[in-house]
Amino acid sequence: MSHADSPPTWSPSFELPAYDTLPDYGDDEDTLPLADQFNPSVSHASFSELPADSIFTLTFKYDDPSNTKLTTVDGYTLYSASTQIEGVKDTQVLATHITGRRDKVIASYLRGRDPDDMLVLGGMPPMKRSSWLVPGRGYSKSAGTFHHNGKRYTWMIKKEDHNTTLELFAGNNKIPMARFKDSRRDWSIPPPALVIQKARLELQSSALHMLDAVVISLLLAERLRRSKGLKSSRGHLSGRETTLRMERVVRAVYV
């Protein structure tokens, strides 16, 4: 592949440094001690074997990749996603804005009448979403592939009974560096009690240096995966009322 044909990569100007805390903004309330959430010296052969203190977890307030907040274990909102219709008449688009620390927009996902949905990453010019994140085709287990700093990363779909888990792999590595679990019943609590575990993103410490890219790619990949499932099941998407409402808006505006 020539340099001109290489997939576009993105290096946001502001990211979490690996094995460290969030950068000191100068304001104590904006500084989140990530180092207390994991032990980077721990090395294991399997993600599932990692002790709880070596995994950094973000919990989804709503199990909806288009409208949600991602919070730390102590309730600090690190990322959020919101979707609304923008523009007028023929220029209207359905825009999903992803914000990071200090409510700074780090990505915008735009869908309109044009068949090519667009993506804006940081201060980069708009590009086709497929230029950065490419979902798997047909019955592929890939939820999306993207490049970051010249390296390929892939979200793989893992079905678990009636639930879905996405795992992020770097290159040909067989050990996932991050894992997303949708909301599901906690079967460790016996019936008749019904306890629902919120959707969550679990990351190894090795993924924290590119946390922005992990979160953006996950929200896009999961949004595309659910949209694909919605179309194949003619509108049925269990437990996703907010997503269904958004899809109805899309059909009303763009169909």
How would you describe the overall organization of this protein?
It is a single chain. This protein has one domain. Mean pLDDT is 75; it is low at 1-47 and 232-255. The protein is globular and about 55 Å long. The chain is an alpha+beta fold. The strands form two sheets. Strands 7-6-5-4-3-2-1-14-11-10-9-8 form a twelve-stranded antiparallel sheet. A two-stranded antiparallel sheet has the order 12-13. The chain starts with 54 loop residues before the first strand and ends with a helix. The protein is 16% helix and 31% strand. The protein has helices at residues 129-132, 211-232, 241-254, and strands spanning 55-60, 68-71, 77-86, 93-99, 105-111, 118-121, 127-128, 142-148, 151-160, 163-170, 178-181, 184-185, 196-197, 200-204.
Summarize the structure.
With 255 residues, the protein is of the alpha+beta class. It has one domain (3-78, 138-248).
List the helices and strands and how they pair.
Elements: E1 55-60, E2 68-71, E3 77-86, E4 93-99, E5 105-111, E6 118-121, E7 127-128, H1 129-132, E8 142-148, E9 151-160, E10 163-170, E11 178-181, E12 184-185, E13 196-197, E14 200-204, H2 211-232, H3 241-254
Antiparallel strand pairs: 1-2, 1-14, 2-3, 3-4, 4-5, 5-6, 6-7, 8-9, 9-10, 10-11, 11-14, 12-13
Protein name: DUF6593 domain-containing protein
Domain DUF6593: 63-226
Pfam family, one: DUF6593
Core attributes:
single chain, 255 residues, alpha+beta, twelve-stranded antiparallel sheet, 14 strands, disordered N terminus
